[in-house]
Amino acid sequence: MASLVKFTATKLPAGKKGLLACDDNGYFTMPVGALNVFNSVGAYYKLEGAAELFKGSSVFMRRVANGCLKGETGHPKRLPGMTMDQYMSRILSIEETNVCCHFKEIWLDENYGRNNPQFNNPNMVAIMAKIKPAGPKGDALKAAFENNDENVCFSIRSLTRDYVQRGQVFKVIEQIIGWDWVTEPGIAMATQWSAPALETLQEDVVTQRNVEKMLKVRPASVSLEDNLVIAQEALQVFTGSKKEPPLFTKW
């Protein structure tokens, strides 16, 4: 049976506190996520395993170093009538007409939990980023950054592998596609990180066949060089390039 992973669109504990200052090149520094944290249903996002993705030799970090990591406005949506293969293609693609920002740097702050005791999690590791509004939707993001009363929150787009150990569900991020700018109407604005700490918005099981079929069909969006690299990396998740704890497919 083909190995299974999950596409996870997760609103991580990330947002601006008040008005952020940008550097001389227009980049804002803020947390866009966290590891060693529980989500709202009690699953634990591990630093172990995911930390490898933030090393310079990873495909993801090479995309950052090459200046290719961009974010969209909102997560890709599975539209009515869209097959899983078509949806998988959209997940692994960056739609140029929907780009709102560029990520200059991504790094882990392993002291963030200890330096911010209000979160009551000294083991929490923040995913930090330098972000500049850019692209067709960049003006809207820039206005949000400059509005002291508006919260800015990014949500990771990733493939995760879940496993159970002693009754606890663990999530290991296998591939980072990027972060999307998301809005949460009704959430208290700009006083603290977005709450709750982790809120799962959408999860779909993805199979190796989905990725292989997508690469075989090669829609126009995947023919773009950067999107093709993302798709090829997704296939590696299934072909044994990473050795993680055993997968339990009944989530």
Structure summary:
With 251 residues, this protein is of the alpha+beta class. It contains 7 helices and 10 strands.
Question: If you had to describe this structure to a student in words, what would you say it looks like?
Answer:
- By secondary structure, this protein is an alpha+beta fold.
- It has a domain of 167 residues.
- Helix content is 22%, strand content 32%.
- The chain has seven helices and ten strands.
- Strand 8 and strand 9 form a beta hairpin.
- Helix 2 crosses helix 5 and helix 5 packs antiparallel against helix 7.
- The protein is globular.
- The protein starts with a strand and ends in a 13-residue tail after the last helix.
Comma- or semicolon-separated keywords:
disordered C terminus, 251 residues, globular, alpha+beta, 7 helices, 10 strands, 6-stranded mixed β-sheet
Give the topology, please.
Elements: E1 4-11, E2 28-35, E3 37-38, E4 44-45, H1 59-65, E5 70-72, H2 84-91, E6 99-109, H3 112-115, E7 125-133, H4 138-145, E8 153-165, E9 168-182, E10 199-207, H5 208-217, H6 220-223, H7 225-238
Parallel strand pairs: 4-9
Antiparallel strand pairs: 1-8, 1-10, 2-7, 3-4, 5-6, 6-7, 8-9
Helix pairs in contact: 2-5, 5-7
